[in-house]
Write a structure and sequence with these properties.
Elements (H helix, E strand, L loop, with lengths): L2 H9 L6 H6 L4 H8 L8 H14 L1 H7 E4 L1 H6 L3 H5 L7 H16 L3 E4 H17 L9 E10 L2 E10 L4 E7 L5 H7 L2 H12 L4 E7 L6 E5 L2 H23 L14
Parallel strand pairs: 1-2, 5-6
Antiparallel strand pairs: 3-4, 4-5, 6-7
Length: 260
């Protein structure tokens, strides 16, 4: 039985991804929960990142996906008492109208998006356009899907931009100067290794942009050292997954071992 079949039988999902491999570097119980669809994570940063990427790479889809909350429109629908309050958005009336908008959005198959987030994401993209990154390192095929077996390992995912001889991944960050630490802590190096291996392309970049005005952007080249670190993490995670499959799917006995 190959690895794809083993995964399908054990957790119902027959492929691995960057996210699943990242989890396999830590608690295998979390990895199992992720693979079974039991680990749902949501945060403001993740929500904004999804909006930002969609506006950057699939703008038409963004208009179909999101309903922008117009705070002025909500306030205009409120009573004079609410409009005159110091914090109208905290009143029961304002929240009730906003809740009605939420239900309207859900009924139409859309997600609510604040006008602040929508405006910020568009201004960030305008900065990328102004500095030339949009027409260079973010030019190519967008949201390219793959589902490949590499050396017997089933891998599935999407890459942001497949350019002419290069791959670019878009990242928003608190600081471009601290992004090198993010690469390691969020295991973006694994992502770089997977994408480069699947497509056979060595030139891998991150276009990183600060989320605070004036949205300072940076072009970050993935070095051979970082790519090698990603490969080592990938192989370490794969060992953990194969051991889990071979040992009867036990997660309770798994523990971390390291030096400091």
């Amino acid at each position: 039985m190959n690895l794809r079949q083993q995964l399908k039988e054990a957790v119902g999902k027959e492929h691995l991804s960057y996210s699943s491999i990242k989890y396999a570097l830590g608690d295998m119980r979390l990895w199992e929960m992720y693979m079974r669809g039991q680990l749902k994570k949501q945060s403001e940063a993740l929500t904004f990142g999804t909006l930002y990427d969609m506006l950057l790479f699939e703008k038409d889809k963004a208009f179909e996906t999101y309903m922008v909350i117009d705070s002025d429109q909500i306030l205009a629908s409120c009573s004079q008492k609410t409009q005159d309050s110091k914090r109208p958005a905290m009143t029961a009336e304002y929240k009730s109208i906003k809740s009605d908008m939420q239900e309207e959005a859900e009924a139409s198959g859309k997600e609510l998006c604040s006008e602040e987030d929508w405006k910020q994401a568009n201004e960030m993209i305008e900065r990328l356009d102004a500095c030339g990154l949009l027409d260079t390192y973010l030019k190519g095929q967008y949201q390219v899907e793959f589902n490949e077996d590499i050396d017997g390992v089933p891998l599935k995912g999407f890459l942001d931009c497949l350019g002419d001889g290069f791959i670019t991944d878009s990242k928003s960050a608190r600081s471009v100067n601290k992004f090198k630490y993010d690469v390691n802590s969020w295991s973006y190096d694994i992502q770089a290794y997977i994408y480069s291996t699947v497509f056979g392309i060595d030139n891998y970049y991150w276009v990183v942009q600060e989320k605070a005005y004036p949205y300072y952007p940076a072009l970050v080249k993935c070095t051979d050292e970082t790519m090698l670190r990603g490969e080592m993490k990938f192989n370490e995670a794969l060992v953990n997954i194969k051991e889990w499959l071979a040992n009867g799917h036990k997660t309770e006995t798994h523990y971390a071992v390291f030096d400091v």
